[in-house]
């Protein structure tokens, strides 16, 4: 796509804000109360109504930002640990748009506008970074959920990246899957055609959540692919280091193929 001049891009960005902001407000003040109501309703006997409502709301939020989400592959049901590359708060919304999973997330997210509300009502397990006691409690809770047949999600890079390269997958996060002998399913998140928009969606140096949120609201429309990759079975046999290496290789290969 040919580059536009700064003046033209500034006008286009203002136009995007002009028509997206009303949709965002509608999604927050009309659709969000509907989701609250559906969460209060509970379970319809086959799947939690609230979980389905959160998936619907997440897809809607991505549309407000001009992100056309596409799910590739099939997420496993039951007690599965989903692990994905991590560059932005959008990752959580993109994953929730496809499948219900309880995230392992830094405690600061709980106070973020919009996203903090969604994650708190989506079975998120909050981690106090740098707190060994908190990490132990998170691992215990993860194992319990996996054994009970509930899905858990984590970002094994340990934090957001700049979108230019995939970080190391830390083995410790896979301890819960090994303890519960649960399946691990890697997920590749790809923004833009050929993943070229990863650095755009990622947090800029020193950028706050609200700064990133506002900047992305004015960005051009682009596709988002959530690729559920080949699961890693029998985590107990593979060991956490083996799982970490295999999961990273599969995510990296999927992003390269995109």
Task: Write a compact overview of the structure shown.
The protein has 258 residues and is of the alpha/beta class.
Tally of separate domains: 1
Strands ordered across the widest β-sheet: 1-7-6-2-5-3-4
In terms of quaternary structure, the protein is single chain
Largest sheet composition: 7 strands, mixed
Structural class: alpha/beta
Beginning-to-end CA distance, first to last residue: 18 Å
Relative helix content:
40-55%
Topology, number of strands = 7
Number of helical segments?
Answer: 10
Mean pLDDT: 89
Order of helices and strands: HHEEHEHEHEHEHHEHH
What coarse outline follows from CA principal-axis ratios?
globular
CA gyration radius, whole angstroms: 18 Å
Residues in β-strands, percent: 5-15%
Unreliable stretches (pLDDT < 50, length at least 5) are none
């Amino acid at each position: 796509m040919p580059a536009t001049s700064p003046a033209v891009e500034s006008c286009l960005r203002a136009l995007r804000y002009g028509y997206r902001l009303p949709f965002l407000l509608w999604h927050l003040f009309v659709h969000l109360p509907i989701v609250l109501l559906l969460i209060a309703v509970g379970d319809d006997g086959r799947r939690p109504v609230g979980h389905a409502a959160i998936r619907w709301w997440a897809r809607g939020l991505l549309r407000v930002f001009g992100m056309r989400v596409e799910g590739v592959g099939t997420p496993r049901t039951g007690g599965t640990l989903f692990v994905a590359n991590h560059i932005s708060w959008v990752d959580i919304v993109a994953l929730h748009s496809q499948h219900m999973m309880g995230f392992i997330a830094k405690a600061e997210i709980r106070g973020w506008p919009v996203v903090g509300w969604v994650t708190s009502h989506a079975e998120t397990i909050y981690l106090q970074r740098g707190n060994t006691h908190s990490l132990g409690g998170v691992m215990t809770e993860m194992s319990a959920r996996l054994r009970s047949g509930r899905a858990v999600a984590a970002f094994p890079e340990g934090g957001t990246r700049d979108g230019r390269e995939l970080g190391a997958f830390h083995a410790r996060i896979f301890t819960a899957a090994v303890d519960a002998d649960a399946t691990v399913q890697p997920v590749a998140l790809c923004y833009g055609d050929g993943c070229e928009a990863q650095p755009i969606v990622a947090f800029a140096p020193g950028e706050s959540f609200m700064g990133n949120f506002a900047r992305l609201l004015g960005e051009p429309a682009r596709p988002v692919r959530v690729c559920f990759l080949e699961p890693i079975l029998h985590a107990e046999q593979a060991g956490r280091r083996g799982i970490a290496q295999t999961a990273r290789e599969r995510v990296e290969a999927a992003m390269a193929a995109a």
